[in-house]
Amino acid sequence: MEIAVLDINGKETGRKANLSSDVFAIEPNNHAVYLDVKQYLANQRQGTHKSKERAEISGSTRKIKKQKGTGTARAGSIKSGVFRGGGRMFGPRPRNYSMKLNKNLKRLARRSALSMKANEKSIVVLEDFKFDTPKTKNFTNILKALDLQNKKALFVLGDSNNNVYLSSRNLKGSEVITSSELSTYKILNANQVILLEGALEGIETNLSK
């Protein structure tokens, strides 16, 4: 499929980019997309949650009342979870939430996500650009030219460009990544995916394996 290449002013350059049908025009696999997004979100979790249990609470170990004859339930320790200030029963413990998926499934999920965006006409191909110095205003001008001020925009670069990255860092709705950092979650989370010409070859090479 062919798509017009735009310049940083939002105007057509007169060139066309050929997007591979094996990456941008497949039948989306919803279950693969679900699993890849689930893995991405699970891997973001630190898993450092912890509450004190009965054995970790400071307090007396004496039996707080006699076993029988009180008319109430038996109680052996003030540290029991049924009392205020006691340990938490079945509380959270540190754990690793990360999960693994095979590479072929992850590639399928990313191709599916890109195909969804292409079907929604939410993919823009932009000519390669660079900034001499980090300047948020320069990046904001590009967003205005592409009518993306109030949208979540994902810019995918071919190679890492620190000035472009730093220029976008203060803008809440925009994110700049390289083609090797592309993930299913980031594709779906964006309203518009802006692919720079230099990123196309890397994307198609990585996802066509």
From TrEMBL:
What this chain does, per the record?
A: One of the primary rRNA binding proteins, this protein initially binds near the 5'-end of the 23S rRNA. It is important during the early stages of 50S assembly. It makes multiple contacts with different domains of the 23S rRNA in the assembled 50S subunit and ribosome.
What quaternary structure, including any partners, is listed in this protein's UniProt entry?
Part of the 50S ribosomal subunit.
**Family membership:** Belongs to the universal ribosomal protein uL4 family.
Q: Positions of the region Disordered?
A: 45-78
Kindly give the InterPro entries that the UniProt entry links to this protein: Ribosomal_uL4, Ribosomal_uL4-like, Ribosomal_uL4_dom_sf
One GO location term (cellular component): ribosome
What name does this protein carry?
A: Large ribosomal subunit protein uL4
- Record key words, sorted: Ribonucleoprotein, Ribosomal protein, RNA-binding, rRNA-binding
Q: What organism is this sequence from?
A: Bizionia paragorgiae
Q: Which gene encodes it?
A: rplD
